[in-house]
Amino acid sequence: MSKRAMFLRMVTASLLRRRSRMLIALLSIGIGATILCGLLTIYYDVPRQMGAQFRSYGANVILLADGAPSLTHSAVQEAMRAFPEEKIVGATPYRYVRMDMVSRQQSFTTAGTDFTQVQKTSPYFSVEGSYPENLREVLVGKEIAELIGVRLNSVMELTYKPAEGAGTQDQANAWGPGASLAGSAEGWGSGLVNVSAVLDGEGRIASVTVDAATQTPEIGGQCEEEAFTSQFIGQSLPIADVDAVSGATLTSHAVLSALNTSVRSDAASNQAKTSSFRVVGILTTGGEEEGYLFISEADMAAMTGDAETLDVVEMSVSASAEELDGFVDAVGQQEGVRARLVKRVTRSEAAVLTKLQALVFLVTVVVLLLTMICVSTTMMAVVTERRQEIGLRKALGASDGSIRAEFLGEGMFLGLLGGVLGGLFGFGFAQLVSVNVFGSSITFQPLLLPIAVILSMAVSALSCLWPIKRAVQIDPAIVLKGE
Amino acid sequence: MSLLEIKNVSKIYGDLKALDNVNITVEKGDWVAIMGPSGSGKSTMMNIIGCMDKPTSGEVLLDGVDISKQSNKYLTEVRRDKIGLIFQQFHMVNYLTAVENIMVSQYYHSLPDEEEALEALGRVGLRERARHLPSQLSGGEQQRVCVARALINHPEIILADEPTGNLDEANENIVLDLFAQLHREGTTLIVVTHDPEVADVAQRTIVLEHGRVAREVHNASWGK
Questions:
Q1: How much of chain A is in helix, strand and coil states, percent to nearest 5?
Q2: Lowest mean pLDDT among A277-281, A309-313, A321-325
Q3: Would you call A278 exposed, middle or buried from its count of C-beta atoms within 10 A (0-12, 13-18, 19+)?
């Protein structure tokens, strides 16, 4: 039999046949390794775990219009591709308009939004009642509710009126495909010439009707005829020049001017729209949202006649600060939209994360020390208990090196066993902590098992050093006379 | 050259002279008993011969080498290579079987050899008890295992410290018979005892009193 085989036989016999004492040592190493492994798992999983937690504090990315007059759904969808789908916790579109409550002579900022997403990006919103689920339902900010005295199930009549002169301020939008336009300009003798036109699917003029009743019928009146109006068909606004009716230059130019300053005449554009909304929820946030009304996107589109325009999209993205920077840059490559980080949120996330990891690290170190003390004490007890045996071994001719090797061997073997146990139980421990503290399960890190084993072997070896020193000092003469 | 020569050896602990100018010579093949009452210096003598302690003054020549001047490491080697120890309390490693306990001695000496260890157990009549733990063996059986362990590396001296002190008469006789057998085979035996019966079976008895050799008795009845 080789010396190594005998060594292993002695070490394993010592562990297997002296179970009670070794179980205590194994227990201390095992528990230490369990907590260590658990903490390490948590340490590595904390960013992911906390990411989910942080997301309950609201949006960390905001999408805004950039270079375009407003944000559109299509631009937003394009921009969202910059974010990996699995990292998006929620994305809530908001369209803000003023709506009037005529009966109270009040007007309120009203947001059209997607309530499913609201609950994801603003989980801290506290709603008395419920979020709107059907059309014609409104969520009322607490401030407004108190101001006008509405309660759940009250009915609010809201009126949307497009802003005065919206057409001239937003010509490009007014002259969109399919729009019905109306305009007027002064012709001969300060008389108003009224023009109405309809645009085709590509935004070109499909038909034009001129009302020149204020003009001289035989002269300016000719501008009502098709011979004159047909020249505008197929043209895009604004039109540069006009082929004037001879003798009716002023009237002809009035038609051109009326066309070029025309605004939408269809209902969506310039007609007030009124609907009744049932109050289904009162919103408390502690923030400015309490001064808003919230209706569904569909209601907003119906009220404004515009389903495409958005003001802002609040996104909640579960990612590290560096990743977020990358996403924001990627969005920046696109036209018409830009992303902005909510620094207040992302910075405090990073700070909390660092502190939490430092805390876990510190606890790990303390546990490591405690484990070492525990194992060291147990091994010291083992050495004391085995004084006779150690003395005997020395009397039989064991060198100091042999004694060291045997105890270190036992310690390492215990470390190996404890490490394997710790690695397995540690995952369970981490899972327990994760479920109870963070409310989510943890991912198993296979690499942590060998790390736990090596660490626990190193810890037990280190813990054995002092006991071994004591063991080596034992005088072989103690075996004589049964002292 | 004598196997063991103890020349003018003194061992002093503070004011106490445990050994006072002792001279003993042991030839190869001798069977010597060292006797004396408690406090006579027997244990100190045993420690010095067993290379577990060094004298304050004097020379201890083992095979012509003065071991009193050597390092602890050298003494460890001497214990391992030249001396087989047998103790009053037996001292077996309690989690190892009988045969494994013998192999421990081989392990420190050279290479463990289970077959040879089993043979040694056979010599003390315990081959069938080889796989028993010390707790499953009687005191006499344990001491016989210890005799086998002391023999296994063919030491020049077997040094026994009250080998029968914890044994009943039947087992005492078995162990003494084993000693006699070993002596016939040429093994040098030094037995420290206070039991006259154990001393009587030796070739000669050295009586220590107050750290000095009081007398040396050649056993008249020896060999008869």
A1: 55, 20, 25
A2: A321-325
A3: middle
Domain ranges of chain B: 4-218
Q: Which of A141, A142, A137, A90 is nearest to A117 (CA)?
A: A90
Residues of chain B with Cβ-Cβ distance to A477 below 8 Å are 47, 50, 52-53
Angle at alpha carbon of residue A197, lines to A194 and A201, rounded to 5°: 165
Q: Do A396 and B100 touch (CB under 8 A)?
A: no
**Partner residue opposite A481 with nearest CB, options B76, B88, B95:** B88
- C-beta atoms of B133 and A18 within 8 A: no
| Parallel, antiparallel or unpaired: strands B83-86 and B157-161 | parallel
For residue B93, which amino acid is it? V
Q: Closest Cα partner for A141 from A296, A291, A295?
A: A291
- Token pair 């230490």: residue: A32
Q: Note the pLDDT tens digit of each residue in B176-211.
A: 999 999 999 889 999 998 888 888 899 999 999 999
Residue that has been written with the tokens 């012709």 in this structure = A187
Degrees, nearest 5: CA angle A364-A365-A369: 115
Q: What is the ipTM of this complex?
A: 0.92
Return the CATH architecture of domain B4-218: 3-Layer(aba) Sandwich (3.40)
| Contact yes or no for A416/A453 (Cβ under 8 A) | yes
A237: left (phi over 0), alpha (psi -120 to 50) or beta: beta
What is the torsional sign of CA A459, A463, A464, A466?
A: positive
A402 in B contact zone (CB under 8 Å): yes
Give which of B48, B51, B47, B63 is closest to B8, Cα–Cα.
B48
Task: With cut-offs at 50, 70 and 90, classify the pLDDT of residue A165.
Answer: very low
Q: Where do the structural domains in chain A lie, given as residue ranges? A: 3-53+349-482, 60-161+272-341, 169-266
Chain B residues within an 8 Å CB radius of A9 = 100
Per-residue pLDDT band for A176 (boundaries 50, 70, 90) equals: low
Contacts for A54 with CB less than 8 Å, ≥ 6 apart: A60, A318, A345, A349, A352
A456: its two tokens:
């626990």
